[in-house]
TrEMBL record:
Gene3D superfamilies to which the protein is assigned, alphabetical: 1.10.287.1260, 2.30.30.60, 3.30.70.100
Pfam families the record matches: MS_channel_1st (PF21088), MS_channel_2nd (PF00924), MS_channel_3rd (PF21082)
Localization of this protein: Cell membrane
Gene: ykuT
Keyword Membrane listed: yes
Domain Mechanosensitive ion channel MscS: 117-179
Molecular function as annotated in GO: mechanosensitive monoatomic ion channel activity
Similarity comment: family membership: Belongs to the MscS (TC 1.A.23) family.
Species this protein is from: Anaerotignum neopropionicum
Residue ranges constituting the Mechanosensitive ion channel transmembrane helices 2/3 domain according to the UniProt record: 75-115
Residue intervals passing through the bilayer: 20-38, 75-93, 99-118
GO cellular component: plasma membrane
Name of the protein: Putative MscS family protein YkuT
Mechanosensitive ion channel MscS C-terminal domain location: 188-270
Keyword entries, A-Z: Cell membrane, Membrane, Transmembrane, Transmembrane helix
Length: 285
């Protein structure tokens, strides 16, 4: 009789182990499926919006279509997370009433301790629908200037000129300076010596700016603003050129080169810091 009880107990333990193993496999399978669905949905969303934009079926610029694709992928990801979580809880034997209780508790938690998450998501929608910025734009957010590489429901990714990636919660974005609305100004400041004839130099610079028509990135003839500062060793003159977005750095570099070469040809002195060193020799006692 005892052997029979031991056998039945062993079979029950084996059955429990098998059931537990099946549960584990089902949970792992659910997680794998969620991961696959996220990857597939993200890829499908990107291809869909790209195709629709190429065929001009979407009445929006390419940069906004990329942003919509990014946000859609983010929404799908959270939906899949939600479905996966409830599936796993159901596999663990949590009934529907308990799931509703958990959902209610989750709502309370959101109201009390996860307000920032909700704020981030709401701001994500506002950023897109009010077109504050989009993927590919050059923006300044919280004193960080760079290119927007991604916009999701919760955060914005910005890569600065040094290649560093900044991840900013949408709820913390605040004031945004978008440098990609139609055009951007290239600004160059050049210093000349105090003994130079300012009017002559201004005339030379204006003539040089008239010869920039070969620069495709410049939208209008650069404007010589005039004297903008009197430094310790130089009179500073500023030139402003309206150019295509994302070309301002290249335009500034080219203008500096042309200005330097022209001023050299005209014999205009560009001052630079100099220091006189006096060597004092001590007399031998």
């Amino acid at each position: 009789m005892k052997n029979l009880q031991d056998l039945l107990g062993f079979e029950a333990m084996m059955q429990t182990g098998v059931n537990f193993g099946i549960k584990i496999l089902q949970i792992v399978g659910t997680l794998v499926l969620c991961w696959l669905f996220i990857r597939i949905s993200s890829s499908v969303a990107q291809k869909f919006f790209k195709k629709q934009t190429e065929k001009q079926r979407l009445a929006m610029p390419d940069r906004k279509a990329k942003t919509l694709s990014s946000i859609s992928s983010s929404v799908l990801k959270y939906v899949i997370y939600f479905v996966g979580l409830f599936t796993i809880l159901n596999l663990l034997g949590v009934d529907s009433k308990s799931l509703l209780v958990i959902a209610s508790a989750g709502s309370v938690a959101i109201g009390l301790g996860a307000q920032s998450v909700v704020t981030d998501m709401l701001e994500g929608f506002f950023i897109f629908f009010e077109d504050h910025y989009a993927v590919g734009d050059i923006v300044t957010i919280q004193n960080i200037t760079g290119t927007v590489e991604g916009v999701s429901l919760r955060y914005t990714k910005i890569r600065d000129p040094q290649g560093r990636m900044h991840i900013i919660p949408n709820g913390s974005v605040g004031i945004v300076t978008n440098l990609c609305n139609d055009f951007i100004n290239a600004i160059v400041t050049v210093g000349i010596a105090y003994n130079e004839d300012i009017d002559r130099v201004l005339s030379i610079l204006e003539n040089e700016m008239q010869q920039t028509s070969d620069m495709d990135s410049i939208l209008e003839t650069p404007v010589v603003v005039g004297v903008v500062g009197l430094d310790d060793s130089a009179v500073n003159i500023r030139i402003v050129a309206k150019c295509k977005i994302k070309t301002n750095f290249a335009v500034e570099a080219e203008l500096r080169k042309r200005i330097k070469n022209r001023l050299d040809r005209e014999g205009v002195e560009i001052p630079f810091p100099q220091r006189t060193v006096h060597i004092v020799q001590q007399k031998e006692a």
